[in-house]
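Dear U.,

Please find below the material for section 3 of the report. The protein was modelled together with zinc ion; I have listed the sequence and SMILES used, followed by the predicted complex structure.
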Amino acid sequence: MRVHSITVCPDRVDVLVRVEAERMMRTSLDEAIAGRALAVLPGLADHRCFNDAGRSFAEELADTEVPHLFEHVVLELMAEAGSPRSLKGETAWDFRRDGRGVFRVSLEYDDDLVCLGAIKSAGRLIRYILEGGEQPDVRAETLRLTEIRSWPLGSSS
Ligand SMILES: [Zn+2]
């Protein structure tokens, strides 16, 4: 899965991602994926899917689109870095319009830089969740995101 473009809108960040290999499209490709996802981000167990009649994400985790997993990983990283848990995301696709394997992931945010940092961290985490290997240090990632939040960028409020 690759991030193609990121657009910061006033109310959300839109991420265009592409899954190149057909077999990498869904989390059902490996039954270890759900376990690895919950091991690195236990908070995912309490996520709900607002775009699917309030189903819990834990129910979806074993067999859902990989970009949908990416959406929830970004939101969880943001929450761990202090963003409100009420922020929502959505994963949509129209393969006929955009091409096969292209997904549009929309993320609400409270701090755009934290959201962008979480998108970058999520890419690394997704690689581990899909393929295994050495477990990434999620605490270090969220600490970095927490620091981004305090960057003194604005001059007025
Ligand atoms: Zn969802």
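For the text of the report, you could mention the following: The mean pLDDT is 92.

Regards,
Y.
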